[in-house]
From TrEMBL:
Residues 24-465 form the Amidase domain. NCBIfam families: gatA (TIGR00132). Coiled coil: none annotated. It comes from the Bacteria. GO terms for molecular function: ATP binding; glutaminyl-tRNA synthase (glutamine-hydrolyzing) activity; transferase activity. Belongs to the amidase family. GatA subfamily. GO terms for cellular component: glutamyl-tRNA(Gln) amidotransferase complex. It holds the Pfam family Amidase. This is Glutamyl-tRNA(Gln) amidotransferase subunit A. Heterotrimer of A, B and C subunits. Keywords: ATP-binding, Ligase, Nucleotide-binding, Protein biosynthesis, Transferase. It catalyses: L-glutamyl-tRNA(Gln) + L-glutamine + ATP + H2O = L-glutaminyl-tRNA(Gln) + L-glutamate + ADP + phosphate + H(+).
Amino acid sequence: MDFTDLTIKSASELLSQKKVSALELAQMSLKRIKEVDDKLHAFLYVAEKESLESAKHTDEMIIADHEHSALTGIPYAVKDNILVKGMQATAASKILENYKATFDATVIRKLKQVSPTMMGKTNLDEFGMGVSTENSAFGPTKNPYDLSRVPGGSSGGSAAAVAAGEVLFALGTDTGGSSRQPASFCGVVGFKPTYGRASRHGLIALGSSLDQPGILAKTVEDTATIFQIMAGQDELDTTTLPKPVPDYSKFLKENLKGLKIGVPKEYFAAGLDPEVKTIIEQGIKKFEELGAQVSEMSLPNVKYALSAYYIILPVEISANLSRYDGIRFGLSAPGKNLEEVYYNTRSAGFGAEPKRRIMIGTYASSAGYYDAYYKKAKLAQGLIRDDFKKAFEKVDLIVTPTSPNVAFKFGEKTSNPLSAYLEDIFTGPLNIAGIPGLVVPGGLTKQGLPVGIQLIANHFAEEKLFMAGHALEQSLNLKLKPNI
């Protein structure tokens, strides 16, 4: 049995048939991590002792109950900005280097109820600020398809861990594409739900009006299985809504007859890599072959999304990161007075990118500039939401590229932050509008680099994403696997 070939579905079937135990799966995962993570650096912390103890307990539970969930005993990883009680939660920042979580995030608490095996915490751009995982205070993660290239970000560690077969799924977060873009770069499935569909409680806050928990997995079916557990209202997060959660597995079918799919012309403008464009267009043709009705459409205000995003997000960052003051938790650098403690702590604890965004956000929200920047960005956000609302009156889904390019080489964008910010051009609009998105692997370029196809649905229509994504995945039948 090759652990790297397993999916959640196949591993769960093996557990049911008593052909493998949860402990054996955990041992296989640990073996794979030891084999490849020195090259990848996907993990910031490997929970070897905890995972083996958890897996033994799970096996005892399965023997006693004779029943288990599809996720029971499945090895998974967690992005290191999601709290797991008693475990480190650094957000890849020196300012939280020695911090240990005192409670479980709601998504972790929900998963614990079905007993998957948590293998450790994965690397990210510091506090989720970045598109390459180069901004981690603890060193970059590498792309399993080409170690000279980035895995994407900010959930690069989670995407690389799944792509390299270290775990069968991983949790990420998604503020402007942080689960979907690395999924595209690493050839896995990436998912961001509707804002308000899953709890943010226990996610280290970046942009509170944009953040969502994300999923990185090998298949769309696996993704739907995970999200079935994660979705729903949470009294600890007042932004979650009391909407019933459907049985997503019932929507996994391959017949898309009558489904209306829109292709926005704004997403196929200058700057899109020709090979990326070709792979996306091939995916769109597949949808037509599967019975969907495909038509060109327009999102006229989406061109303002990136500008609005990079004002709204830094303003929220400047507010959220103000809690790291050297007094309550995390790093504390001494000073002669309180002001000096703040200054020394933040100077030593924050990396260059958080400092840059804090300054942008503080400036954009300050007296005299609020109306000129933040207020206009919020008005643009309203226009973008309206664009998507009108679009979904005519179509069921929208199909777009995920990124303008494939995974780029290390250092290629570090000297020019603006070029890195442009990575969010196709993913950021969904967070601005609060709508869900799913990225499905579409193929490989001539260099052997993955390209993901992004599917977009209306608010709380995740089942349509899973339906179309599963159909596309089955039709393409790619079986991508890096040689590492």
